[in-house]
Specification:
Blueprint: H1 6-27, E1 43-51, E2 57-59, E3 62-63, H2 67-75, E4 77-80, E5 83-87, E6 92-97, E7 102-110, E8 113-118, E9 123-125, E10 132-136, E11 143-150, E12 153-157, H3 159-168, E13 170-174, E14 177-184, E15 187-193
Parallel strand pairs: 1-6, 7-12
Antiparallel strand pairs: 1-2, 2-3, 4-5, 5-6, 7-8, 8-9, 10-11, 11-12, 13-14, 14-15
Amino acid sequence: MNALDDNSDKRGLSALVEGARATGEKSGEGRGLPPVHLWNPPSCGDIDIVIRKNGLWLHEGSPIGRKELVRLFSTVLRKDPDGFCLVTPVEKLMIRVEDAPFHAIRVDRRGDALVFLTDVGDETEAGPDNPIRVETDPETGEPAPYVHVRRGLEARIDRPVFYELVELAEERRGADGPELGVTSNGAFFPLGPAGAHRT
């Protein structure tokens, strides 16, 4: 059985909270993130945590209502070749993510940079290291925009924020004709064909 049984899962969640808090305190939470990319703990199986497509975090099917707890878990989230996991120096627990783990809920222009704020309080500057990408549904033509946050973790750009990007966009000639895009930190990111998102 892949998932942990109920009792193990509850013990795992409690230990995870304690471990995440301890690493947050050591790294100076609010001033930096724990170095999860440096940790190589043994895998302890799965924990029944799901990040829904709309950004809601669930544990055993119930929403995790405390924003502080979601923020805490987000700081120890990592994307490995075998999937998304919550990791501390002593354990690694696999979770399920339906789309992107974060949502970009705001964007600001600061000089040459577009700075995104996520639903868990992270800021990310779009640029060569943190690209913006847009997937288009082949059937509906609906855009699904994302921005890279850190080490393979992305934020789905919320619709109102995407519309703000479209308003900031400039037109350039792309390989398939005119396209709209935005520039941040010297990099140009296509949003779609010219006229596709503007009314």
